[in-house]
Write a structure and sequence with these properties.
2 copies of one chain form a homodimer. In chain A, helix 5 (92-104) packs across helix 11 (298-313). In chain A, the strands form 3 sheets. The first copy, chain A, has a 6-stranded parallel beta sheet, covered by helices on one side. Chain A folds into 3 domains: 12-64, Orthogonal Bundle (434 Repressor (Amino-terminal Domain)); 73-176 and 298-323, Response regulator (Rossmann fold); 179-296, Rossmann fold (3-Layer(aba) Sandwich). By secondary structure, chain A is of the alpha/beta class. Chain A has 11 helices and 14 strands. At the A-B interface, helix 4, helix 5 and strand 2 of A face helix 4, helix 5 and strand 2 of B. Strand 2 of chain A pairs antiparallel with strand 2 (108-111) of chain B, so a sheet runs across the interface. Chain A binds a DNA duplex through helix 2 and helix 4. Chains A, B: Residues 10-68 form the HTH lacI-type domain. Chains A, B: Keywords: DNA-binding, Repressor, Transcription, Transcription regulation.
DNA sequence: CCCGAGCGCTAATGCGCATTAGCAGTCCAG
DNA sequence: CTGGACTGCTAATGCGCATTAGCGCTCGGG
């Protein structure tokens, strides 16, 4: 491969020559290694620094990484497209948080966009991945690949998942949203308004977020009733047949679809039925309805994920942290029709 | 610095040992260097490949970069926050295009988030930047730093600006939007409807986009009339005093502000005055009005910027390319009141 | 039987940096 | 006057890879 060689870059040796010292000294000055073993008098130090400033020298990050194993580069892997259109910008706030924190701690972000989509899924560990270029990695996505996770765990690669994940050959570090608590609070609030028959519309299993939401529901009602979303038309039929006064929609989009379909049948929300959404839209779901539910602290999750990751890289312990969701006052939850 | 050393990674030497060949051979196989000089029989090749597959070996990107000067990593530098809130997601579509193309050509994206904000501005060339980790870089932002640009040019670092830029010690490679042409077409359309007195509301100078839009305007009307936006209140006064039937707003947000203020004064748009916006909102500008104007092909610009950049890295020539803007039919341009 | 021409591979080197070991000089206590 | 301790630096090494030069072997023609 012919080296592109954009105008022969400066190296520490060049700086050393210009400053009349050794390359070692330049490195020492650059990294502030003025410890007991190797002390550099202020005069020498200043001379080196001056040359560096005058020449605009900057250390080669690749060489640095190779020699020191540290980079200040954080990987970001998303199982869905990073700048998604199909997911209705659901991931945007996470990235805002990630970016904020990265900027704060002087890290660059490496977006692993090169991961090819194989069989409809992306994988961290694909042919020729560049994981090792980063000091660690943040994982983002609705559903993570379990093989990826367990390999990351066994290889002890520093990473943090945004969103709680089940163990994968070991505990998975994460910063997630506390869905069970959020759902419980919603149920409590709903019952306080007088609702006695509250159904859960969703799968209740599969990806961790669904499991967690459903668990919060199951643990807070006496007689859980789960309705499968299935086909839109069936969904309405099932809900109406269930004879309930309030429905928790596992996905925001389900809540929207349900409400729209109900309206066409002349069933009013919340007049005839209260509808509560669990979480923010992960699919585009245009609606004018202001749903009652909760907000996932997405930005904060992104921020704390980076925080936790940097600590992990510094040698800290893996962390599993759940953040509270914020109650979102809306117009779709009222006392039941008496 | 204590090497984190996450479970002693595999190296080519390990693979070599396992396959009973030399490290050189592994490298040759890995890079498909089966040219005249060094031919590897299929049998050996397969053996090496099998070991690689079995062990899941992946070359260290840092070492690779150091030795070969090539990385398949593209830098992305944004002068505004990458995932902005303040800019109302204006940059989002660019990034979508950039991501798309990067994924397409198997490149990872390095977001230079570590650039500190000094004096309210970011700079590519800051203390300890990581430019050299990437093979090249895409620049994004309303207004780029001219020192950065000229240094990039003189250092012959491969880069592409998203948006046209003036020369900076040499031509700046870019993929931009053809504002002059777009504005000319809008003016032509406006005049075709019967408007004779068309004003330009904006600065008409400063960042290249403003200059280009204004140029398109100046070159297509006989007697240009530029109105300074200035303070909102003054803006309305100036527009009304100008006695025109149509206004081109340099910035989308200006168009919104103007229209809102006019409404409060009882001046209707487009009944009393047509308002045409030039470009998409770069600031949050909530409005129900559907403005007539044009759309910047943001996604396509991002995509082509990456395309041009990769060609540049491969040794191609620097390119300056303008993309057409799409006319956006709206509700704010009608024939003038007779 | 010898020699040149492939063939199939490898030893050696360097990319730019961080780090370890250690050298030459000075100073002071004994 | 000597030896240890401290001071101020540097030579050497290796990180994991790509690349260059070239080695030992076989084979066929003369």
């Amino acid at each position: 491969m012919p080296p592109p060689d954009h105008t022969r870059r400066l190296t520490q040796r060049d700086i050393a020559r210009l400053a009349g010292v050794s390359q070692t000294t330049v490195s020492l000055v650059l990294n502030d290694r003025a410890d007991a073993e190797s002390r550099i008098p202020a005069e020498t130090r200043d001379r080196v620094l001056r040359v560096i400033r005058e020449t605009g020298y900057v250390a080669d990050p690749a060489a640095r990484r190779l020699a020191a194993r540290r980079n200040r580069i954080l990987g970001v892997f998303t199982y869905e497209p990073v700048f998604p259109s199909a997911t209705g910008d659901f991931y945007h706030p996470f990235l805002v948080g990630i970016e904020e924190c990265a900027e704060h701690c002087g890290c660059d972000l490496l977006l692993f966009t090169s991961a090819p989509t194989v069989g409809g899924r992306k994988r961290v560990y694909h042919q020729d991945h560049r994981l090792r270029l980063a000091d660690g990695c943040v994982l983002l996505g609705h559903e993570l690949d379990r093989e990826d996770l367990s390999r990351l765990v066994t290889e002890r690669y520093p990473f943090v998942s945004v969103g709680r994940r089940d163990d994968a050959g070991g505990p998975v570090p994460y910063v997630g949203a506390d869905y069970p608590a959020a759902v419980k609070r919603l149920v409590a609030r709903t019952r306080a308004l007088g609702h006695e028959r509250i159904a859960y519309l969703g799968h209740g299993r599969g990806p961790e977020p669904y499991v967690d939401r459903f668990r919060g529901y199951v643990e807070s009602v006496a007689a859980p009733l789960r309705l499968d979303p299935g086909e839109p038309a069936d969904m309405v039929a099932r809900v109406l047949a269930a004879d309930v006064t309030a429905v928790l929609a596992e996905e925001y989009a389900d809540g929207v679809a349900l409400t729209d379909l109900l309206a066409r049948r002349g069933v009013s929300v919340p007049g005839d039925l209260s509808v509560i959404t669990l979480g923010d839209p992960t699919r585009p779901a245009p609606t004018d309805v202001d749903f009652t539910g909760f907000r996932i602290p997405r930005r904060e999750m992104g921020r704390q994920a980076v925080e936790v990751l940097t600590e992990l890289i510094e040698g800290g312990e893996p962390v599993q942290r759940l953040l509270p969701c914020e109650y979102a006052e809306g117009a779709t939850l009222t006392p039941p029709r008496t």
